[in-house]
Design a protein that fits this description.
This protein is of the alpha/beta class. The strands form two sheets. A three-stranded mixed β-sheet has the order 1-2-3. A three-stranded mixed β-sheet has the order 4-5-6. The N terminus is likely disordered.
Length: 143
């Protein structure tokens, strides 16, 4: 029996990231502590915090996976976020197609993809959770 990989609806080539991104994503300074960032993830029921400078340019991202890594390796929770965030950040432009963003997320095995403008300033976030909510009407956030 031959199995084929199922793809999202054909419309993913015409869907734009801008129409699917979360615009009210959470950003923070790299100066906050790991403990503060984990508190934000917990209290807001989110999977990532975008680290941005004062002008709004993305410097990194701190995700649930980063939180697990720092706890498992006994990094002090008072450590500034900028020392443990993911720096080699993959981003996508707000006018990119959903298909392009999907390829990036799949290729790099990431669940949170920052959306930026031409200057690298954060405009939104494309998350696996939001994609499920949008395309399949699956609500993954606790009510």
């Amino acid at each position: 029996m031959v199995q084929t990989q199922k793809t999202l609806p054909e419309r993913n080539d015409t869907l734009k990231v801008q129409g699917m991104m979360i615009e009210d994503m959470v950003t923070a300074s790299g100066e906050i502590s790991i403990k503060e960032a984990i508190g934000i993830l917990h209290h807001k029921h989110i999977g990532s915090v975008i680290v941005a400078d004062k002008s709004g340019k993305c410097e990194g991202i701190f995700t649930e996976r980063d939180a697990i890594r720092v706890i498992a390796t006994d990094v002090p929770l008072s450590t500034p976020l900028k020392e443990v965030m993911t720096r080699n950040l993959k981003t996508v432009s707000e006018d990119a197609s959903f298909a392009h963003a999907n390829r990036i997320m799949h290729s790099y095995n990431i669940r949170h993809l920052p959306v930026v403008d031409e200057q690298g300033c954060i405009k939104g976030l494309l998350s696996f959770r939001a994609i499920l909510d949008e395309l399949f009407n699956v609500h993954t956030v606790p009510g």
